[in-house]
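We modelled each protein-ligand pair independently. The example shown here corresponds to the calcium ion entry; the chain sequence is given first, followed by the ligand as SMILES.
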Amino acid sequence: MHNMRLMALAAVAVIAACSKDSVTNPQPAPPTATLFTASGNIAATVDNFRNALGPSNGGTAGEQPTGRREISWDGAGANPFDNRNDFPANFFNTNVKSGAVFTTSGTGFRNDSTDFAEINPSYATQFTFFSANKIFAPVGSNQLDQLFQVAGQPTPAVSRGFGVVLSDVDLADKTTIELFAQDGSSLGKYAAPVRTDAAGLSFIGVTYADAIIARVRITLGTGALAPNVNDISAGGTKDLVVLDNLIYGEPKQAF
Ligand SMILES: [Ca+2]
Ligand SMILES: [Ca+2]
């Protein structure tokens, strides 16, 4: 009985120490993010974002000291997978060594040279490209994650910036990127601007001083592409959105 009372007192002491700790040592503030956003004519902002990350490292294998990587979906190497629902999730770190792999809760990925008109003819007038002429979307979902790896290696990596070109954002605050650190904690969630002209392109990008982004969750509007699903601007109830260029800081080996 005496021993149990001592243990109870010890437990109270530990709890008291913890709560004091949380008051005197608050969690550090999240790292400062620099935001880049544009809609309509997005070219100048995309260039500013590219310059903020540094020169292109293309598909050079191995971790580079500085610079960025970019996926436009347009290269000839992707041609065998055009307009199908099985674009390889690791294409951009195996076929092309750019340090990017994708996951989705849907059934696959599709790069498309027809503005997805083969899925639903109405999409031909909804979507357009930024870089000619292919665009990209997950299949069976409106959400995908990009993970980083050292270029050409299955080694987890982190990046100091991430940006995406989007086509046909109609609703505010529904199309977002959320950035996650290595420990899985969210670094922040940012909404893409809605479309402001006939072309309908938008851009959202975020940079940090250091390479701290391990994963990015991209949410495209409010629904997945499908034969019987029209965009909210074409008699439907969902805001359908697809993506084009992905631009990100050189993936650095995570520790
Ligand atoms: Ca493209
Ligand atoms: Ca839309």
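Residues 15 and 21 are 10 Å apart (CA to CA).
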